Amino acid sequence: DIQMTQSPSTLSASVGDRLTITCRATQSISSRLAWYQQKPGKAPKLLIYQASSLESGVPSRFSGSGSGTEFTLTISSLQPDDFATYYCQHYNSYSLPFGGGTRVEIK
Amino acid sequence: QVQLVESGGGVVQPGRSLRLSCAASGFTFSSYTMHWVRQAPGKGLEWVAVISYDGSDPYYADSVKGRFTISRDNSKNTLYLQMNRLRTEDTAVYYCARGIGGYVSNYFDYWGQGTLVTVSS
């Protein structure tokens, strides 16, 4: 089965910072990768699908890139509402693994 | 607006059974693949099971295969997860989620609020 690995697992940042989170697959998944944001006690929220397509209503400071085995989620200018945990998820098989998550905390 | 509302969670002893439900509204339920995703306390997300729009194709994570059964009643706009032979490691918040982007190989555009299942003696 394909495994997804995110890095870093925790990231300390300040409002206004540019952030990049990486997600790697153990084999090629084409561009079938999604990113989610989750806040404590809440359900995940879809941010990006097909590696780089922004979900409707998601602020344009979020962007995704990559294909094959390496992908990135970038937040161009971190806002107070963005402190959360972010997960990647691959959807190119009958198992739908998530990465382990990246927690973005206030520096 | 799309709404997914889970119910049926609670505290159950190891080896016992529990059935979760997810009531859907605000979209044509019978047109969408549906999933269950879980999250153990303080841990990450784990996909559990998927069922095709018409109920003909279910798939499961290896961790629950043979113990859990996903089903749906399109006349009632409801998704189910029958959980048998529960283990302590099944303790988690269980989310139902709407799948999109393929037949069953989906990403998830809408999620419920989750229901907590605690397996403990």
Q: In what range is the share of β-strand residues of chain A?
A: over 45%
Number of strands of chain B: 11
SSE order of chain A:
EEEEEEEEEE
Head-to-tail CA distance between termini of chain B: 40 Å
Mean pLDDT of chain B: 97
Q: What structural category arises from helix and sheet content of chain B?
A: mainly beta
Number of helices of chain B: 0
- Large-scale geometry of chain A: globular
Oligomer: heterodimer
Global mean pLDDT of chain A: 96
Chain pair forming the biggest interface: A-B, 26 and 23 residues
How many helices of chain A? The count is 0
Spatial arrangement of strands, main beta sheet of chain A: 2-10-9-4-5-6
The share of residues in helices of chain A is under 10%
Backbone shape of chain B: globular
Relative helix content of chain B: under 10%
Note poorly predicted spans of chain B: none
Rg from Cα of chain A: 13 Å
The count of strands of chain A amounts to 10
Structural commentary:
The complex is a heterodimer of chains A (107) and B (121). Chain A has 107 residues and is an all-beta fold. Chain A has strands at 4-7, 10-13, 19-25, 33-38, 45-49, 53-54, 62-67, 70-75, 85-90, 102-106. A 6-stranded mixed sheet of chain A has the order 2-10-9-4-5-6, with no helix packed on it. Chain A is globular and about 35 Å long. The relative contact order of chain A is 0.34. With 121 residues, chain B is mostly beta strands. Chain B has strands at residues 3-7, 10-12, 18-25, 34-39, 45-51, 58-60, 68-73, 78-83, 92-100, 107-111, 115-119. In chain B, strand 9 (92-100) and strand 10 (107-111) form a beta hairpin. At the A-B interface, strand 4 and strand 5 of A face strand 5 and strand 10 of B.
Provide a compact summary of the structure.
The complex is a heterodimer of chains A (107) and B (121). With 107 residues, chain A is mostly beta strands. In chain A, 0% of the residues lie in helices and 48% in strands.
Supply database-style keywords.
heterodimer, A: 107 residues, mainly beta, six-stranded mixed β-sheet, four-stranded antiparallel β-sheet, 0% helix, B: 121 residues, seven-stranded mixed β-sheet, 52% strand
